[in-house]
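Ticket #846: bound-state structure for adenosine-5'-diphosphate.
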Amino acid sequence: MSTPMLQQIAALKREAGDAILLTRMGDFYELLGEDAVKAAPVLEIALTLRGKGSDSETPMCGVPHFALESYLPKLLLAGYSAAIAEPTAKPEEVKGLLPRAIKRIITPGTWLDDDARWLACAHRVGETWGIALLQLASGQLRVIPGEGLALLASTLERLGPQELILAEGSPDVFELDATRTPLPAWRFETERARQQILAFFGWTHLEGIGLDPHPAAIGALGALLDQVEATQKGRPAHIQGVSLELGAVGPLLDATSARHLEIFANTLDGSKQGSLLQLLDACRTRMGSRLLRAWLDQPLRERDALEKRWSQVAWLTEDRRREPLHKLLATVPDLDRLLGRVALGLATPPELGQLREGLSQLQRLPAQLSEGGWFEQARELELWAEGTPLCTDLLEELKRCLAEAPPLEIGKGEVIREGVDAELDGVRRLARDAKQVMLELEEEERAACGINSLKIKYNRVFGYYFEITKANLAAAPAHFIRKQTLANAERFTTEKLMDFEQRLLSAETDQVRLEETQFRRLLALVLEARAQLTALSQAVARLDVLASFAERARHGGWVRPELSEDRELLLTGTRHPMLEARLGRECIPNDLELRTKSSMAVVTGPNMGGKSTFLRTAALLVVLAQTGSFVPAELMRFGLVDRIFTRIGASDFLSKGQSTFMVEMTETARILSQVTPSSLVILDEIGRGTSTRDGLSLAEAIALHLRDLKGGAPRTLFATHYFELTKLAEDSRIRNLHVEVQEWEEHLLFLHRIAEGPADRSYGIQVARLAGIPRSVIATAQRILSQTPEPSILKPAKRRAEVIQPALPLFDLEPDPLREELEALDLSRMTPLDVMNWVAAKQKAL
Ligand code: ADP
Ligand code: MG
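RESOLUTION: The complex was predicted; output attached.
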């Protein structure tokens, strides 16, 4: 048997689909059935049974209505979506079951938390594709058209949305953590999507935004807007338009390189901990943190824009300019999120209060920037663009109307100030007076009947009444009207009491109604000011990021980079930013000199010597510099870089079933096809995933290809434990660098210092000793090694032709399989026990 309530829930559940349904009942949001079973452990709340023992017995759990916003993150972080159902009428307006409807569906991509969340929708038409992207918090809507599946995959990966909408049945080959939301294919059809876009924005044609030549993008945008309407139950007013991004130039850094360099997340657990983003983020506002992420995602390639950012940062490195500014920014709430909540009809009175406090703080900002006679400088540097709206009118209205500390809900205290609405004031006076009159009435009747204990009481069902105990009943006055009989008392009302009760009740409902009207008017004002609020928020975010850079520069001793016309990269005293943050002074500074005429370097040296760190440092400094930040170095001078390519350890792909070597070669092929003379190429241990012989040949061929690139060799750093490759430096365009080690007795001391010239040999066995391998095992390894003849590839005597033609055999000797295996060991990924077992096995086989 199903109760009407359960039928109502079932209907709502059909609409909610996969989302967990939370239905407001009284003071709780209830979850029933499967949803309750799924959500209770996630929410850490007790699971009970509704209608226990009856036919309609159902699992149930609930959260208090005022705590909803604190429970939602748990559901969303666990990967669920949540559908919120609310009553659509008030209890006094209907008899029986309250009608209810879903007010919004919160999905991982439309959740308004502190993160910069993106909802993406991708659609393909033949070879072309389109991505539509929405950040619901700020209302930012972007469309990116493009061509080719590989570019679609890498673009999506770089954008990293939290949720991805795809047409049902379209192949999903994307390596993304995003929650997938399938929509029926017809929603992507160009004509229907076009109509949806026009309807959403109230436009008559699409020419204005230049979408017409991109049918796939139109499909993606139309379907995305469908989903927005379905989850938000309306058209959020702060989504004001679309920006079309024509990706003529790819990003400075592709997604793979960003991952290798730990720009946004570390490679160990994928969290933000230890990433460049986390290191740089000293932003005091959420808008700032979001903008910083966007800047890091798209470093600049324009000289003027960079010089401007650096000058702005330089100005802010002075503590007396930056510190008061930081104090002020720390008080500014997330304006984007507040505006988003207003537009979605979710804003509460305290949130309008936050907006008022934030705006009120911001009024001081322009003056703050020009304090100490800095006005001219600040203006010249455009730290605060002239004409940035401060939304003063909105602020004044909020100050005038909104109560000092408004309650969470209308009707639970005063939301609107006295003096705003004459009618509201009148009703309030009436309510206050009525209470006073009621007290007088009580006094009057008490005197008339002589019952000292006579009191006016109230309950929800019967309203106001006089209560007289059985013992005093005889003294009840004649004009008392009987209302209710209890075991030992009678309850009465009077004409006067009924009249006052009526007035009081209607005053209270009038008050809620009038406050609601006023509150809505304020929300409408906020929405009207949305363009100004967005501009203000962007200006604040910019300033916040610049000040954050300045703080890092100031505290880390970072310097302003210098631009050069040449394709060079000169670094003095440079440190890996994240390593330095971890090690402090123990991080060894290094120098690098890549000039136009000798733009490639081969870095050799033992495992654990610091080669990879050195390579990454160079790439990270270019990213930092071209983002507008200062850099951890004593000096950096460089010509603008158009793309950074990295090929670093492929171990993180192994779990996905592709062979290291395949991944390595795919990435390398991409680099070779896209590299230009202005690029920076970082190749770490290339060729490692295959046998020594193949690896060497490939590594060399790749180096030569880069060296002979039309227009000039790109700046390239090559780290390798094949010290055979040091012979490449016979060409003047390529030089040798090595990591310094000191041998002391039988031990190796890593100095982590980069020096000129090749390493003399590889130090695998010493490293094994360092790792704690027993002496006897090391001795055996040394014996095995000494029995193995040295390879003599790339001997100076070799003819040039053979070097350039790496397909020809490079070895004079038949390769020794044992030696190859020994060299291919990656000691940094082995435990001492692994090494011991390995050596033991080889010894046995001899
Ligand atoms: P390689 O690539 O030569 O095997 P890595 O660059 O991975 O060596 O460095 C190995 C370890 O040495 C790093 O994890 C780091 O702790 C340390 N290291 C590297 N470079 C430095 C440096 N400049 N200063 C201090 N420690 C360093
Ligand atoms: Mg390495």
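RESOLUTION NOTES: Residues 611-612, 684-685 surround magnesium ion (ligand 2) (CB under 6 Å).
TICKET STATUS: resolved
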